[in-house]
Amino acid sequence: MAYSVAVLLSGSGSNLQALIDAEAAGKLGKARICFVVSDQAEAYGLQRALVHQIASAYLPLPRTRNSTERPAIRAAWEQRLATMIAAFSPDLIVLAGFMRILSPRFLDQFPERVINQHPALLPDDGGSHYTTSSGIQIPALRGAHVVPDALAHGLPLTGCTIHRVTPRVDDGPILARTEVPILPHDSIETLHERIKLEERRMIVEVVARLSLL
Ligand code: GRF
């Protein structure tokens, strides 16, 4: 039986591409990508899905100037997202550069089935520090700007993590992690690209592994 995977993204979708390529090469275990959804119309990941004839959708979060309406609008958007995804009965939902936080109400509809890619090192214990393989303690970077944050902190290294998603943002049981050294002349772009090389390798390995459990 195939293991169906939905991918949520907001950007370029190079991790989606790694999954598509691995599936085509027979390197994704029993996993099959069944659905791709983005909250951003220009997300190149949507084009990648279309090229490969994968069912895909664009579901924008409606904007409003009225801040009192915002929670209800967001809840309705999230419920539409959940309904859309549920139509594909995915065994796994991969947040591959999806720049929205999902509420417990969403997560409860897909228990244990949502995983996230985070472009920094997260500890096993949900704490504020990560101990590197050489024993150095560095801050556990969370949020949407962790690549520039790693440079701003002057860290010797950073990395990437894949974890199960829980209601606590950038937390949850760790599935894979790789350390990436920060080089003297790294810019945000050069560092992020080296991190993404590892992320693409890890997401293929994790999805394949989960599909064979
Ligand atoms: C990755 O670095 C991921 O960790 C972060 O967004 C990036 C997505 O890259 N959350 P891409 O869109 O798959 O190229």
From TrEMBL:
Pathway: Purine metabolism; IMP biosynthesis via de novo pathway; N(2)-formyl-N(1)-(5-phospho-D-ribosyl)glycinamide from N(1)-(5-phospho-D-ribosyl)glycinamide (10-formyl THF route): step 1/1
Described purpose of this protein according to its UniProt entry: Catalyzes the transfer of a formyl group from 10-formyltetrahydrofolate to 5-phospho-ribosyl-glycinamide (GAR), producing 5-phospho-ribosyl-N-formylglycinamide (FGAR) and tetrahydrofolate.
Domain of life: Bacteria
Binding positions (N(1)-(5-phospho-beta-D-ribosyl)glycinamide): 13-15
Entry keyword set: Purine biosynthesis, Transferase
Active site: 118 (proton donor)
Name recorded for this polypeptide: Phosphoribosylglycinamide formyltransferase
Family: Belongs to the GART family.
GO biological process, one term: 'de novo' IMP biosynthetic process
One MF annotation (Gene Ontology) recorded for this entry: phosphoribosylglycinamide formyltransferase activity
Top EC group: transferase
Catalytic activity of the protein: N(1)-(5-phospho-beta-D-ribosyl)glycinamide + (6R)-10-formyltetrahydrofolate = N(2)-formyl-N(1)-(5-phospho-beta-D-ribosyl)glycinamide + (6S)-5,6,7,8-tetrahydrofolate + H(+)
Binding site for (6R)-10-formyltetrahydrofolate: 65, 99-102, 116
InterPro entries: Formyl_transf_N, Formyl_transf_N_sf, GART
Boundaries of every Formyl transferase N-terminal domain copy: 5-207
Cited CDD domains: FMT_core_GART (cd08645)
Lineage of the organism: Bacteria, Bacillati, Chloroflexota, Chloroflexia, Chloroflexales
